[in-house]
Amino acid sequence: MNFTVIEASTVINAISLLAVPTLWRYPSIFFHECGHALAAIAVGSRVRRFAVGEGEVLWRARIGGVETLVGLVPSSGMVGIEWVRCSRLKFLFVILAGPAANALLAYVAFRLLWATELGVLLFMLLIFEAFTICINLAPRTVSIDGVGYPSDGLLLLAAFKARKDG
Ligand SMILES: [Zn+2]
Question: Best label site of 12, 59, 62, 98, fewest CB within 10 Å?
Answer without folding.
Answer: 62
